[in-house]
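Dissemination and training. As part of the outreach component of the grant, students in the summer workshop were shown how a complex can be specified as a set of sequence lines and then modelled as a single object. The example used during the hands-on session is reproduced here so that future cohorts can follow it. Participants entered these lines:
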Amino acid sequence: MYSYLLPEFVVERREERCIRCRVCERQCANGVHSYDAERDQMWAAEQACVGCQRCAVFCPTQALTVRPHPAEYRPNSSWTREKLQDLKKQAETGGVILTGSGNDKPYRIYWDHLVLNASQVTNPSIDPLREPMELKTFLGRKPDTLKIVLHGEDVRIESELYPNIPVATPIVFSAMSYGAISYQAFKSLAMAAKEYGTLFNTGEGGLPAAMRQDYGKNAIVQCASGRFGVDPEYLNCAAAIEIKIGQGAKPGIGGHLPGEKVSENISVTRMIPQGTDALSPAPQHDIYSIEDLSMLIYALKEATNYEKPVSVKIAAVHNVAAIASGMVRAGADIIAIDGLRGGTGAAPKIIRDNVGIPIELALAAVDQRLREEGIRHKCSILAAGGIRCSADVVKAVALGADAVYIGTSALVAMGCTLCQKCYTGKCNWGICTQDPYLAKRLNPEIASQRLINLLRGWSHEIKEMLGGMGINAIESLRGNREHLRGVGLAEWELNVLGVKGAGE
Amino acid sequence: MRVKTSWRSERLLPAKDHEACGLFGVMDITGRRFGGEMAINAIKNIKVRGNGLGGGFAVYGLYPEHKDYYALHIMFQNKSVEAKEKVEDFLVEHFNVVYDEEIPTDPQVNLFCPPLVWRYFVAPKKKGEEHSLPDDDYVVSRVMHINTGIEDAYVFSSGKDMGVFKGVGFPEEIAAYFLLDRLYEGYLWTVHSRFPTNTPGWWGGAHPFSILDWTVVHNGEISSYGTNRRFLEMHDYYCTLYTDTEVMAYAVDLLMRRQGLPIEVVAKIFAPPMWDLIEYMEEKEKKLYTALRMVYAPLLINGPFTVIVARHSEMFGLTDRIRLRPITAGAKGNLVFLSSEEAAIRCVCPDLDLAWTPRGGEPVVVRLHSQDHLLSLNQSV
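and obtained this result:
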């Protein structure tokens, strides 16, 4: 524990309600709650509380309230409480401050400044409960044209078709590795993706051999800078392969899974000795340039007989459009762009909060650039980083995305409360931990059902929004910025988004 | 069309028109030529589908005496003599003009700001490398030059042995103005009555839209306009008129003329079957339709539309896949009709042999010397 710090949360216990059942004590991996048998009383060590709300939710008598601590320093717009506390932590340790989840700073959220269109009079809106409404999406490279030959009744396609993966809804689970998250959470994502007909992304921690047969066809397997768990079977069991160059939460930064989390199963899956740190370098050391990327893309295509689309994931940075164009020319079939608000299991706080650009602007710029160069059809675009609801999905598709990655939303569906302590390994919700006592709290049968419900609910809402716009197939919304208008945005922002202002 | 205008942002593109319309088309499948009365009377019958802000006709088999030459119908806004001089200098430089004249009009008919409309019969005058260019491509690029490069001049139509007559007014007024019932005959007539929700003051904005001998008359609002437009831009079609019909015309040109796909396949790109249906098709069909939908997803025309597309020797009608705009087909002897409403057909041909409503996404293809139009009968509602 740090000295000189104010607690972040206050734990209020209504004594008249507390029945001393000690559920809170058992639920809290941070050791906040304790029982004093002599006085028959529960105590709270508030400085250890992360505000994950596990105890409050599980308290059978609703005796607990956990809320931000009211203690304040003298108010100061520049030297905020957060800045002061961070300074004190660093003064004490001399270290880099770590954090988890996505950027929580008040950068403009463009989704909240974009509004959608609906049909009135000149065009009927469509009721998705009465009419078909299609969300099926193909991820992968499309040919320039289809050469079709007719022999009487016989119609034949002569063009070469590239591998494409269909997904039932334009929502894919983002990369979260086994190791960063628990086996239970990892499996829940796989089960939900399979059941709903979409994809999950293994992240860079490999895919346990036992899961390959059942879930490989719904997996995007990652090949990242640490190359953990990559072997021919891993690549070939998957629906698609993703080369991870960067992550929105920590552009330019590698990863570090501490040795204490590398249990036997993780060590086998990642192909590293048990108990050793799993270090992912910041760059891929065989990719120092665009032509190197091309070589890795084609190496992976060779390894999989050109049967799988290869995705390249980058963090949204300043010249993202030019980089994306290069990636397509280097042979990427899917481009995944992770924005400023993308999540992480662990990242230096200073990086998470200051590096990268918002996904909305990056996505609009990339889509526009690829169209100007006439190569938009040569790849699918996956947008990631801060997709919070179905309207965000619809807006992303209208800006030009083929589908979106959701990470944080999926974790929240499983129980996550964004306490940002993923890096401590003490996730009380059993998601971001390798402690068997904590991880078993997450039941994959139940968690996967929650994820399926999320996909179903969002898909219904997307259909309603599409129907309102008079569109009955998601492809007719893709890049269709006519259906977006900006509210409260400056002219340069509207120009980058390629969207008219409301009323324009 | 193929003149790239560089906008600093998508956002600065003008908004597109919204409109609804009445359509009618009639063809004699033996190729016998007939006058304009049927087209005029039919469209008059569905007057409520227009509001007097646009009407027009396309006629095929119009100029048999000049059938080997491209017939350019060119309008000069505000009867601009300057524009006409510029156009004629341009034509003389790039074409051999074999004959030209003012298109006769009836001065008794009072219309909104009529332009001067002239017709030229021309043959390409190619130089050097241009000899390797097909005639059609040569003509298209010259027409686009006139449309985008010469102020106050606009080419109504540029096909051989066909022509477009259009303007601001009800279609029967346009017909009377151009003396269509008295002067012309053709084996295929299409006609359009326009109901825009904005105020045009421009004769070029009326339908049919035409390039070479393609004409498109269209009723609908395309909700996928942005997607379609941006896809066509990747293929060098730059929309300059901001109407749904323009997108449709370019998509037809891209798929049929440039990529050589037959109408039946193009119809399945514009209005593809639902995935639920594709799933239960036979393996080969399933593969075809899946590939079509995957590759041409950006050309799915979404939202309500009915379109009648014509060129020499064929005409086809199509509605969107959930049939949000009406189309009716009819046949009597050698005559085949397409229209927004059965009433328009019955008005000019009360004793039809057949009348049917094609299913959404099922094209009615009418071809010379063929009974192809009957194929859609099996698919009727």
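The radius of gyration of chain B is 20 Å. Students were then asked to discuss how this feature might be tested experimentally.
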